[in-house]
Amino acid sequence: MENEKNSIVKCPNCGQEALKEDMFQEGDLFICEECYLDIHQKIKACDPWGVHSKTVLRKRAGQEGTEGLTDLQKRIYDLIVSRNGATSAEIIQELKISPNELQNQIAILRHCELLKGQDRDGVVYVVPW
Ligand SMILES: [Zn+2]
After folding, report:
1. Could you tell me how far CA 11 lies from the centroid of its own chain?
2. Which residue segment(s) compose the domain that 78 sits in?
3. 87 Cα–ligand 1 center, Å
4. Which residues make beta-bridge pairs with 18?
5. What pLDDT was estimated at residue 32?
6. pLDDT of residue 59
7. Is residue 91 one of the residues assigned to a domain?
8. How many domains does the chain have?
9. How far is CA 35 from CA 50, 79, 83, 92, 121, in A?
């Protein structure tokens, strides 16, 4: 574990190398603090991974609406679409992610106008936009 913690990771966004413990985890990736802040400030642009990653993801995604999303964001989006809405608790259980992580991802997806919150008899569901 000591090794793992002290390993050097290259930020996939800017190429800068940093200690893994100083990086922020975003889905399956570790990115540097600079890029993390940058990304979360640029959420409105709906381009969370910048031009380079977007090109990579575009090859896999094939769907215009979800173009440029990370795999995790796509999984959340697909889950919600397939059920026509789900609660945060259901998504967390289904995808085995932390509430914090989910909150981040939902924020991005909301800014991309893919998902939104909806009150159903006092229970908040995440539903397709
Ligand atoms: Zn970076």
Report:
1. 16
2. 60-129
3. 32
4. 9
5. 85
6. 46
7. yes
8. 1
9. 10, 28, 33, 25, 39
CA 21 to ligand 1 centroid distance, Å: 14
End-to-end CA distance of the chain: 41
CA of 30 to the centre of ligand 1 (A): 9
CATH code for the domain in which residue 96 is found: 1.10.10.10
CA separation for the pair 87, 54 (Å, rounded):
28
Q: Specify the DSSP class assigned to residue 66.
A: T
* Residues measured by CB to lie within 5 Å of ligand 1, the ion: 11, 13-14, 16, 32, 35
Ligand 1 midpoint to CA 13 (Å) = 5
Spans in the chain with pLDDT lower than 50: 1-2, 43-45, 48-63
